[in-house]
Amino acid sequence: MDPEIAKTQEERKRIEQELASLTKITFDTDLYGGSDRDGYVTSIPVNEDEEPEPDNEVARKLASYTAPKSLLKEIPRGGDDEDAGFKRPSKIIDREDDYRRRRLNRVISPERHDAFASGEKTPDASVRTYADVMREEALKREKEDTLRAIAKKKKEEEEAAKEGGGAAGSAPAAAAAPKRRNRWDQSQDNENAAAAAKKAKTGSDWDLPDATPGIGRWDATPTPGRIGDATPSVGRRNRWDETPTPGRLADSDATPAGAVTPGATPAGVTWDATPKGLVTPTPKRQRSRWDETPATMGSATPMAGATPAAAYTPGVTPVGASDLATPTPGAINLRGAITPEQYNLLRWERDIEERNRPLTDEELDAMFPQEGYKILEPPASYVPIRTPARKLLATPTPLGTPLYAIPEENRGQQFDVPKEAPGGLPFMKPEDYQYFGALLNEEEEEELSPEEQKERKIMKLLLKVKNGTPPQRKTALRQLTDKAREFGAGPLFNRILPLLMQPTLEDQERHLLVKVIDRILYKLDELVRPYVHKILVVIEPLLIDEDYYARVEGREIISNLSKAAGLATMIAAMRPDIDNIDEYVRNTTARAFSVVASALGIPALLPFLKAVCQSKKSWQARHTGIKIVQQIAILIGCAVLPHLRSLVEIIEHGLNDENQKVRTITALSLAALAEAAAPYGIESFDSVLKPLWKGIRSHRGKVLAAFLKAIGFIIPLMDALYASYYTKEVMFILIREFQSPDEEMKKIVLKVVKQCVSTEGVEADYIRSDILPEFFRNFWVRRMALDRRNYKQLVDTTVEIANKVGVKDIVGRIVEDLKDESEPYRRMVMETIEKVVSNLGASDIDARLEELLIDGILYAFQEQTSDDANVMLNGFGAVVNSLGQRVKPYLPQICGTIKWRLNNKSAKVRQQAADLISRIAVVMKQCHEEQLMGHLGVVLYEYLGEEYPEVLGSILGALKAIVNVIGMTKMTPPIKDLLPRLTPILKNRHEKVQENCIDLVGRIADRGAEFVPAREWMRICFELLEMLKAHKKGIRRATVNTFGYIAKAIGPQDVLATLLNNLKVQERQNRVCTTVAIAIVAETCSPFTVLPALMNEYRVPELNVQNGVLKSLSFLFEYIGEMGKDYIYAVTPLLEDALMDRDLVHRQTAASAVKHMALGVAGLGCEDALVHLLNYVWPNIFETSPHVINAVMEAIEGMRVALGAAVVLNYCLQGLFHPARKVREVYWKIYNSLYIGSQDALVAAYPILEDEHNNVYSRPELMMFV
Amino acid sequence: MQASDRFNINSQLEHLQAKYVGTGHADLNRFEWAVNIQRDSYASYIGHYPILAYFAVAENESIGRERYNFMQKMLLPCGLPPDREDD
User: What Gene Ontology biological process does one annotation of this record name (chain B) (predicted)?
Assistant: First the structure.
């Protein structure tokens, strides 16, 4: 039975196979050449975005023939720059400076009372109201003041003690003792303050830990063993030999006050993250815990449970360390944040433990000789250590490998692989356990309360957003958005915001989380009110991020937030931060306020701003208020104009403020306002002119700098008359400050001079007599060239002055310095001269100055050692070009230098010399130095063997410049010698060489093709094919052009044969370029020379070739435009065939050929052929491949232009109300593009609709007849 | 629509088309299309002065009156919409 069944089965399988091979699609190997069709691209992109490209001089001259931009810019993907667009994920914290890192010190405050929601009700006592917050802030400020006072007093005391101690003779001891006690005192003070705060606040203990700011500072990062040092030994028992614990932590136990341990936590960060930890000194401290198991200790002693320090700082307590050395799955530190530093510390500690573990008997046996030693019995009193933690560490090792042990298999162990998250959640990083660890507990979901379930759901979604794959992320984000109101603002923000404070956050993660906030803000709307401050705390740091996009994102969120929460809530939330003691908080708050102002309108915020800027309570409030105005000006630019006067009025009194910082920021704000308003709005500044100008006489230093800056921005707004007056007023201060040693002041002074000088009313004579002498004496010194920013500012200012006083004064003063011995200084001089001369020309320069100038430039040019920015080269070029014919006497000398430098050993020098030739070639021609140029040509020709590609490129460029100037006939060496020398260079793969070479060859092909035999040109054609796939667009374009020139010079037949052969190659890029070249040849040499051969080629039964031909036709008709009307009938049969082909690409390419054809011959009477082609194109409208359908739609658009909308509408009407939806969709799409294209033309062609009972569909007007 | 064409140029094309008032879609009914046609027609009559003048002559009205009439007719060119059959 069995074999029978098997036989039957086999039989059936065989038959099925036969059937399958019959029904399978087989390709005609004759037609398709049996080649592998998988390698082909089934459709070709039609349009791609264009990129702007800087025009280059030569390319523009050559560009008589063009190729479609989409082709020229199509770049084969290289391997080298593949990852250029992708940055490695980076942690935000790594690139932050200390100031920005202060964001981590902020506390995510609990939600606040929403006055709008509760209406008239008095808020519950447990809710934090605005009043509470303000009170806390006041308290904090007071505390800070007190602390400062205490510190001051201490210092005074200390100094007094020092003086007194020195007199007494027991100086060192006396000085050390109070110092140490200081710390204790201070922390106790803090404790007291904290306790006081607690009392004052009634039941809100959230920021208690934060109330001990001193601690973090004076003992920020405790390393194991340091605690002991910090604590004075107060009669403690020496127990360290009893239990040699890791990390010597025993000592901390002996500290007299419980306050030490919390003090050992690394700065406030972790405290803020989980504000549950209440600092309570434990009563049981005296008991020795060192023999207890650390695992139980966590829960057994109230101390560890109560102080989060034990869990947070494993570096301090061995408990955490041993705990983590063998993490058990469930216990993976769900308790506290573990920063990367702590992780490293842990790892390091584990390593050290491993190395320091006690030696085993075997190891000792191996180390010591057998005889001469005796093994002693352990004393009776000895008790081995039974601490399980230590046992775990003591891995038994085999002999001989003291430092490495093959670990025993432990299935419960986690190694470094994170535990796989249940339920398809993305993987968690170690840092994430703190936030998402709960998800790992696979409890029964049903057992959880609805609230907990909701939390879990939020956590899951957030984890997916943060770490998930893009599709996971997308759905999670959508769910979060959709269910935002269902989840509620509280649970959402309580989960999201701590994540954003995570110290190890990466850019991408932050971006995603911020996106989540943005989305849910939109949904939650007014529900966010209680959380506004929380959100601000995490979002504000984005406003000062160095990444531009982070700043934009931050602005967007805050703007959305203020729209959702409303102005009143925003002000209530941010008001307490305005006079926060921390400058960081005030700074970010000011920026956030400016965003609020731009979101809700400046007028809405004005009354509040006014009040803040006039605050009597604290200068910080005034400072922040004025800073808000500054930020508003910076943020919204010229949009401040309508509110300019009120803004200036709000801050003007700050110029006379008693606090120096307020005066400074006021001046800076005025500067920002003036800059934003330029060139309008001077009348708004009337009221501040007097205090400003008075202020510069009375102030010094930073304030003066700020005032000057404001003046510098206000003067350009003034009328000529006033500008002149006020400039003179400020100038003597400026001149005085010329000598200031302060770098910042220097920069500001330079900037202000530039601004003053460039205003209309300031006259040249005044500048010449009053400013120039001092200016040059103080600023044109070598030191200024060393700092990049000074250098730039000085050059800019000098150029601005030159614009007023002319070339001669400036150049005359600095020309001598071209021979200065400091190279950076020479470079600065050169750059200034270059800018001045190219701005203003050289007509001012007299014979003597000219001589000095050329002399100096030659000196500077020859003496330069490094010139990466080409300053010397540009300067030389600029001066020579502006002097024009006047350089003739110096040319032999210059050429001598160039020739000498062309022969230099250093490649850089040779390259520069060649570059210089291309810069001055035009001037040499003007000076009729053709012989000299010929000579240089020969010299360059001899250097064509150059091996450095950069230099070779420059040499080719120089040759090109000479050929361009003196023409083909006069060129030495003669073209017929030069070109064969260039052919091998075309093979060079270096981009610069390629570009210059192809430009030169193209130029010769264009102007002097007859000097070179046709065979040489054919050889070049072959080389050029390779260059068609160059990376750089300029090269591809030049190559395509050159094809055109060559075809014109030697006739199309040979070139065409080469190109058509090239269609058979496999590489797509190459084929595409070839089709372009064919089309260009057709355009250059008339289509009739090319079309027969091209159409003949279509008969080759090979996919590539046929597609290439069609593509060439498409380009060809694109280029020849109306000329196409003579050829349309000739190619119609071919297109018919292509449009009926089974191959998609055939139809796609043919459709695009039809499009170009139709557009070219519109209105030229070829409608019959076009309608015929449209009949072939139309059935393709149901194609789904994007490129094909695109090409077809465009062909139909082309037909609309050529045949008129009415014809195409008639094609359309048959399907607009087709019973099949799929059909209707396509037809409506066509109808829509038809409608958009020629709406008006359709009016005459719409079908006649019959009226229905109530509705009139007919258009009787069209029936009217006169 | 397939998932693959959701992001290609054609979907953008449709989005672009949908921004114009007079364009249609597969669910457009006879009445809606007719309204579009009528409004386009009136807009076209008003936009071409010679046509307007021609109608004025034919109807023996002033050109301004014709223009006004056409504009008024654009409000409800085909009368009230018919009741939907499906709901």
Answer: mRNA splicing, via spliceosome
Chosen from A1229, A1253, A1263 to mutate, greatest number of chain B CBs within 10 A: A1229
Q: What ipTM is given for this predicted complex?
A: 0.92
- Please classify residue A350 by burial: count the beta carbons closer than 10 Å to its beta carbon, then call 0-12 exposed, 13-18 middle and 19+ buried: middle
DSSP string of A319-362, one letter each residue: HHHHHHHS--GGGS--SS---HHHHHHHHHHHHHHHHHSPPPHH
CA A502 to each of CA A221, A340, A345: distance values in angstroms, whole numbers, following the listed order: 19, 11, 19
Q: What percent of chain A has pLDDT over 90?
A: 45
Q: What is the pLDDT of residue A418?
A: 52
Q: Would you call the peptide bond into A679 cis, given omega within 30 degrees of 0 as the criterion?
A: yes
Tokens of A402: 């003291």
The torsion angle over the Cα atoms of residues A785, A787, A792 and A797, rounded to 10 degrees, is: -70
- State which residue of chain A sits closest to B22, comparing Cα positions: A1235
Q: Say how far apart CA A355 and CA A349 lie, in whole Å.
A: 10
Are B26 and A1232 within 8 A, CB to CB? Answer: no
With CB atoms and an 8 Å threshold, state whether A1254 touches B82.
Answer: yes
Question: Biggest alpha carbon distance in chain A?
Answer: 138
Q: Report the candidate in A550, A646, A563 with the shortest Cα–Cα distance to residue A598.
A: A563
CB A1024 within 8 A of CB A1063: no
> Measured between beta carbons, which residues in chain B are less than 8 angstroms from residue A1239?
22, 40
Residue found by looking up tokens 């291309």 in the block: A918
With 0-12 / 13-18 / 19 or more C-beta atoms within 10 angstroms meaning exposed / middle / buried, residue A369 is exposed
User: How far apart, in whole angstroms, are the C-alpha atoms of residue A621 and residue A672?
Assistant: 19
Q: What number of C-beta contacts closer than 8 Å exist between A and B? A: 92
* The two three-digit tokens of residue A284, written as one number: 């049981």
The CA-atom distances, in angstroms, between A183 and each of A160, A189, A219, A556, A1059 are: 18, 10, 10, 45, 87
Q: In which region does residue A967 sit, left (phi positive, over 0), alpha (psi from -120 to 50) or beta (all else)?
A: left
pTM of the model: 0.61
Helix axis angle for A871-883 and A847-863, nearest 10°, is 150
Name the burial class of residue A988, with classes exposed (0-12), middle (13-18) and buried (19+) by CB atoms within 10 angstroms of its CB: middle
Distance CA A1233, CA A1208 (A): 11
The CA–CA distances, whole Å, from A1128 to A1091, A1116, A1120, A1160, A1196 equal: 11, 12, 12, 10, 17
Task: Find the CB nearest B10 among A1186, A1254, A1259.
Answer: A1186
Interatomic CA distance for residues A365 and A373, integer angstroms:
10
Res. A1051 pLDDT band, cuts 50 70 90? confident
At B41, the amino acid letter reads: S
A506 φ/ψ angles, rounded to the nearest 5 degrees:
-100, 165
Could you give the CA distance from residue A1125 to residue A1167 in angstroms, rounded to a whole number? 10
* In contact, A1114 and A1149? CB cutoff 8 Å: yes
In A598-645, DSSP assigns E strands to none
CA distance A1177 to A1113: 16
pLDDT digits (tens, 9 = 90+) for A7-55: 777 777 776 666 555 544 444 555 444 444 444 444 444 443 333 344 4
Q: Do B13 and A1233 touch (CB under 8 A)?
A: yes
**Alpha-carbon gap, residue A1094 to A1025, rounded angstroms:** 18
C-alpha–C-alpha distance, residues A609 and B10, integer Å: 51
Label residue A637 left, alpha or beta by phi (over 0 means left) and psi (-120 to 50 means alpha).
left
The residue among B7, B10, B29 with the most chain A CBs within 10 A of its CB, best to mutate, is B10
